[in-house]
Specification:
Elements: H1 2-44, H2 49-61, H3 63-74, E1 82-86, E2 89-93, E3 103-104, E4 107-108, H4 115-122, E5 129-133, H5 141-146, E6 152-156, H6 160-172, E7 179-182, H7 197-203, E8 211-218, H8 230-233, E9 239-244, H9 254-264, E10 267-270, E11 280-281, H10 285-294, E12 299-304, E13 325-326, E14 329-330, E15 333-338, H11 347-355, E16 363-368, E17 387-391, H12 398-408, E18 413-417, E19 421-422, H13 427-434, E20 443-447, E21 460-462, H14 463-469, H15 482-492, E22 496-503, E23 505-506, H16 518-524, H17 527-540
Parallel strand pairs: 5-6, 5-8, 6-7, 8-9, 15-16, 15-18, 16-17, 20-22
Antiparallel strand pairs: 1-2, 3-4, 9-12, 10-11, 10-12, 13-14, 18-21, 19-23
Helix pairs in contact: 2-3, 3-6
Length: 547
Amino acid sequence: MLQGVLRHYLVRLTQAEAELSGKLAGERRVKLAQLAIGARAARRRDMSSSAAARAAELASVSGAYSAAAVRWRSGDIPADIRRGTVAGLRWALPAGVVAEDAMVDGVLDPAWLPLHDLAAVRHFAVGGVMLDIGGEVGATSIPRIVLGDFARAYVAEPDEAKYLCLVGNTLENHLEGRVLPDRVALSDAAGAAPVSLDAWTERLRIPVDRVRFVRVAWHAAAMGLFEDASRLLAQRQIVWQVEVNPSAATGPGLEALSALLASRFTHVTEIGGVANTEWHRASDVTALLERVAGERRTANLLLFNLRGGSTRRRRAVAPPPALAESAGRPAIISVLHSTARLPDGWRPAMEAFHSKAVHPELVEYILAIDEDQDLSLPSLEGTRWRRFEVVKKGVKGPAAACNVAAQASRGDLLVQVADDYFPPPAWDEALRAAVPDFEEEVVLDVDNSDGSTWLLPFSMLTRTYYERYGYIFYPGYHGLCADNEFTEQARRDKVVRPARHIVFEHRHVDRGHSTMDAIYERQKQHYEKGQALFKKRQAQGFPKWPD
């Protein structure tokens, strides 16, 4: 009987291991596919003015970067560098970085990329800036930037051969100005002269208040890394990933290091090939490192701060990522709502946007009505909008309404909506997370539940892109076909960012979600004129107003 019970549990264990292995393999396939899409998008995308400015600034303060970039572009590359691809990304690797059998016919083994770590960290930190200390050839930083987890990455690497390949990989994957490599040692490692972490962030003018994630490849010679890092350690929103090899997990400096970590962070967890559901107090880091050292394996720790002191032993829920920021403050969203259904036809959509926002105090709501209509400022008792305003001067149709509302807006992300447009829960946080850098020109391609795979019927764009033209819709349109031009222009400008995981609901009459009324009928009367204007301007290449 005992043997039968043991066989039963052995079968269950084997099945569970197979299911977990299949799940991890499936997740890896999805991440590789996402990387391939991101790599293609990066190659098609022109360098933005802000990225070009950052690259130029780095070259002015880092002679190593300037020299390596010139050397790579001129083809002065050592003969022993190996070249390969994985998930659409191009890689140059110095001898010894990967095993000989990890690359076959120029194709790298996908297991070389730390994709599980990427997914684990994503639960804790997204948006803003990341720092990669000991970044080698960019296997950690480059995928994170391509996938949009962070707006940009500053990478420190002291080794000359690895640094040259890091710069080359940045250039080859069209990430100049978004991945910013510097040849510097932030410890006593061999290579470039060591400097302190704070001194490095000051020299590169890294905005520490926008840093959300720091990865450190730790080794026995790096015990002084946290010394003179007070500026970064004071930023409690930063999540730190510390990879500690066995030789660094023991020794005389361990006690001091553990005490420092316990004083700066509240919690620690270990990430690896299998998801870990336990958090520990940061004071437990000494015992955790000693256990890892005894097992002769590398520890992969995430250190972070939570309010309160409780730990999770069974089921860990990641702390919410910090809000995406613009100019060092939480990004403001401007909702631009055009309506002709007065007095109250706009209210259901507005109330839905308010009730489903996580932070309505960081959203301004601008209602645009036709200039020949009147609407006294409605009672908004119980709402927490940052600002609510009604505009009408110059509004003679839906396109003009959107433009007038945009002119009155002050936010970092402009979101066009209508009476029949309804958001998903936590829509504001979802949109912020989808924009890695509000200084970039970005248009979001969300799912509008209308089956459209090309058209962007509701415009969602950063203020930076709005300011390129000074309007959302070309002023010659009444309404219909204005979104066709906006879509084609945005795609030509290569600023469209996929965000179809965010699903809004468009309750349009054509899809049976509402009944035909005078407003829909009036809009359809302008279809032929709008279509003719679109075709004319399309043939002209959509010249900017006034043309």
